[in-house]
Amino acid sequence: MKILVIHGPNLNVLEKRERATYGDKSLSEINALVEKRARELGVEVLTFQSNSEGAIIDFIQTEAPKADGIIINPGALTHYGLSLRDALADSALPVIEVHLSNIYAREEWRHRSVIAPIARGQISGLGWRGYIAALEILVAER
Which of 79, 80, 99, 131 is catalytic? Predict the structure, then answer.
């Protein structure tokens, strides 16, 4: 089993962002924790980050045919990334949307996700542990 773990814009600089909102782990630390749990579960993960919606779409289109599920934190693309939404839907894979912060406890414009309607589920506000929960859910559903 292979799971794609995708991080959207600005997640590459987590260690420089608001720790109270995004936690104290860098993206490389989060990826290491996800990879460790994946090994324990006997599955492969392929991680990817880009600040460009087009690069994320290219990654999905290239890697989805060889994968069994997608975990994605689309960052700000959550709210307007319609091309990303289409690529995720076209992959025909189960998708779990993850957010480090609770997007519903923040500014009102963050409350709407264009990804959620095509996702199996959404995990919001659990910090880096949301990625682990998403991974465990996808593995349990195999």
Answer: 99
